[in-house]
Amino acid sequence: MTLHRDPDRPVTRRLSEDGSTIIVHIPMKLQKRGGRKLIVLPETQALPAPKPRRDDTLLKAVGRAYRWRRMIETGRCRSITDLAEQEKVTPSYVNRLLPLTILAPDITVAVLDGRQPKGLKLAEVLRDVPLDWQQQRAAFGFSTTTPPPAAT
User: Fold this and answer.
1) Given CB 3.0 to 4.6 Å as the disulfide criterion, which of 22, 32, 84, 99 pairs with 129?
2) Which range, 26-30, 88-92, 111-115, is most confident?
3) Strand partners, 33
């Protein structure tokens, strides 16, 4: 195998003259980072969309918050204290999670699909949930310039 690095040349595939070898040319550069060699695609080459990564902690908290809200709204629990007793958690924990039910719909869908911004953690969301959805998008690292994706 021979490695030719020419990032300006497109991907090609051909047979050798004797027909015994397939020659594949892939445009790339090698860069050293921290003592390692890293393959870098040319800037014109589009990267595949990142694989969704669900944050189980954030996902579980959003699910609990919606379930608890439904329990209160339907009368299954008379109060936050009653809910906390039924769920065997503290009332302060219930109070911390319930604001997750006012997240912008596109943020909730992104969390469910695992498309939340990299590094967004439950603790960051629980610190302060703005009421305004645009402010939420900005605070939690979601795009504020493009319209939210339509729910499917």
Assistant:
1) 99
2) 88-92
3) 36
DSSP string across 46-91: PPPPPPP---HHHHHHHHHHHHHHHHHHTTS-SSHHHHHHHHTS-H
> Per-residue pLDDT for 48 more than 80?
no
> What's the pTM?
0.63
CA distances to 17, 19, 84, 129, 151 from 89, rounded to whole Å, are 72, 70, 5, 21, 32
Q: Please give the average per-residue pLDDT across 120-145, as a whole number.
A: 90
Count of CA atoms in the C-beta half-sphere (13 A) of 82:
8
Question: How high is the pLDDT of residue 91?
Answer: 97
| Contact by Cβ (8 Å): 65, 108 | no
